[in-house]
Write a structure and sequence with these properties.
42% helix, 16 helices, 2 domains, 414 residues
C-alpha cells in the first residue's frame, strides 16, 4: 500500500513538476495596479495582453462607482445563505430577467462560478439513459461535467460536422432503446484557438436527430453578434440554442455566470442544480455590478466596435508580418510558433524583461509537443501604438527563435 502524500510527492503532474522554476513567473504571476493594457509585473510596467477584459469595463468609472456603492451599502455577506433558503433578492431576479432579454431566452438562472456551473448543469440535465455528444476541444469545465455522466458519451473531432452526425447516429440507436435523450454540447467561441463553433450547422441537424443543444458562450457574450448577445446571434441561430451559458469572467470583467433557456428548463435547474442549491448566493455587490455592466453593454455599442477595431488591427497586422494565427474568428488571437518548452520559456522571459510585453504562453501538454502558442487578448482599451509595438516585438523574437537564440536544454530560471 502506498501513502497518499508520498504518491503526490513523486508525481507532481505535467505542469506541477516545474513549479519550483515557474511559480510566480510563468505560473501564478502577479499583475498589479489598475486593470488596464499596461500593468505592473515584478516592479515594472508591461504591455498586457493576458486579461479577458474585452470591453474595457474592469476599470470603467461607472463600473467602479457601482461596485464601490454596492459594497458600501450591502457589504459582501448580503444576502446571506443559498438562494433557495434565504439568499434571494429583487436584484438577483432583476439581473436574471435582463440577461434573459439580452440573449433572447425565456428565463435565466445566476451561477456563482462558470466552471462549477457547467459541471453541475450537465450533471443535472442528463441521467444514465441519456447520451452526450460533444466537441473534442470543449473547455475543461465541459469535459469534467461529461466525465460525471453515468450514461454514454461520444466525442467528435473539433468542428467536424460530418463526424458529429456519425456520433448522433450512434446516440440515436442507444436512446431509441433506452428511452433517453440526446444532449449536444459545444462552444460559441473556443478560447484557445478563437474559432467559432459551427452552431448553425449543428442546429440544422436537430430536426433529423431530435437533440437539445447546450452552448458555452463564455467568450461570445458581449463580443459577438450585432448587439453582443453572443455567437448564436452572430450566426443567426440563437433560437436553435436550447441552453445558453454565459460567464461574467470575460466581457463583464467580474465573476459568476448564468444559464438561459425555456422557462420550465430554468425552473428545473433552479430546484435541482446542486451547485446552486447548496452554495451561498452571489453577494449583492457582484449582482449590482453585473447589472451596471450589462447596462453599459447594451447602451454603448461603441465599446464593442472599438474592441473589433483593435482585433482587426492586431490580427491583420500579425498576418501581414507573416505570423500564423490559425482560424480565429473572434477577439481571441493565438500566435503559433514552433519550438520546445525551454525555448518557449526563454522567449517569454525575453518578451517580459526586454520588450516589456506580458502575454500567455501555451505549451505541451495543452498543445502538441513542438508547438508554442502566444495567446493575445485584445480589448477595447488597447491602442494602435500597443498593437504596432507588439507586432514589431513579435517579429524580433520570432527571428531569435528561428536563429536558435532561445535554445536550451532546460526551462529558463527567473
Amino acid at each position: 500500500m502506498k501513502d497518499l502524500f508520498e504518491k503526490i510527492k513523486k508525481n507532481r503532474g505535467p505542469i506541477g513538476q516545474h513549479s519550483k522554476e515557474s511559480h510566480g513567473y510563468f505560473t501564478f504571476p502577479k499583475l498589479e495596479g489598475d486593470i488596464a493594457p499596461h500593468m505592473i509585473f515584478r516592479g515594472r510596467q508591461r504591455l498586457n495582453w493576458s486579461l479577458n477584459n474585452y470591453l474595457g469595463l474592469a476599470n470603467h468609472p461607472e463600473v467602479r462607482k457601482a461596485d464601490e456603492t454596492a459594497a458600501a451599502q450591502y457589504g459582501l455577506a448580503y444576502p446571506m445563505g443559498a438562494r433557495m433558503m434565504s439568499g434571494n433578492s429583487n436584484f438577483h431576479e432583476q439581473l436574471e430577467a435582463e440577461l434573459s432579454e439580452y440573449v433572447k431566452k425565456q428565463d435565466s438562472i445566476l451561477c456563482n462560478y462558470g466552471y462549477q456551473a457547467m459541471v453541475s448543469a450537465i450533471d443535472c440535465l442528463v441521467d444514465r439513459h441519456d447520451v452526450i455528444v460533444y466537441d473534442a476541444e470543449c473547455h475543461a469545465c465541459i469535459l469534467d461535467g461529461v466525465r460525471l455522466h453515468m450514461g454514454k458519451r461520444f466525442v467528435f473531432p473539433h468542428n467536424d460536422i460530418a463526424n458529429c452526425e456519425k456520433q448522433l447516429e450512434r446516440a440515436k440507436k442507444i436512446v431509441d432503446q433506452s428511452g433517453g435523450s440526446i444532449l449536444v454540447i459545444t462552444e460559441g467561441v473556443f478560447g484557445m484557438s478563437g474559432d467559432q463553433g459551427k452552431l448553425k450547422e449543428i442546429v440544422a441537424l436537430k430536426e433529423k436527430y431530435n437533440f437539445r443543444l447546450f452552448v458555452d458562450d463564455a467568450h461570445g457574450i458581449g463580443t459577438m453578434g450585432p448587439t453582443g448577445a453572443g455567437t448564436g446571434e452572430e450566426q443567426g441561430c440563437q433560437d436553435g440554442i436550447d441552453i445558453y451559458f454565459g460567464t461574467f469572467a470575460k466581457s463583464f470583467a467580474l465573476i459568476g455566470g448564468f444559464i438561459s433557456s425555456e422557462e420550465h428548463v430554468v425552473e428545473y435547474l433552479r430546484y435541482n442544480m446542486r451547485s446552486q442549491i447548496f452554495a451561498k448566493s452571489l453577494p449583492m455587490p457582484i449582482v449590482v455590478g453585473a447589472l451596471k455592466r450589462l447596462e453599459l453593454m447594451r447602451n454603448h455599442p461603441e465599446y464593442r466596435e472599438k474592441l473589433w477595431e483593435n482585433v482587426r488591427s492586431l490580427q491583420n497586422g500579425l498576418k501581414a508580418a507573416g505570423f500564423n494565427i490559425g482560424n480565429t474568428q473572434s477577439p481571441v488571437t493565438p500566435v503559433y510558433l514552433n519550438g520546445s518548452i525551454p525555448e518557449a520559456t526563454n522567449m517569454i522571459v525575453d518578451l517580459r524583461e526586454n520588450y516589456n510585453i506580458f502575454c500567455s504562453m501555451v505549451v505541451y501538454p495543452v498543445v502538441p509537443k513542438g508547438v508554442i502558442i502566444l495567446r493575445l487578448i485584445p480589448t477595447a482599451v488597447h491602442t494602435n501604438d500597443d498593437v504596432e509595438y507588439t507586432i514589431k516585438s513579435f517579429s524580433a523574437i520570432e527571428n531569435k527563435l528561428k536563429s536558435g537564440q532561445y535554445m536550451s536544454d532546460r526551462i529558463a530560471a527567473v
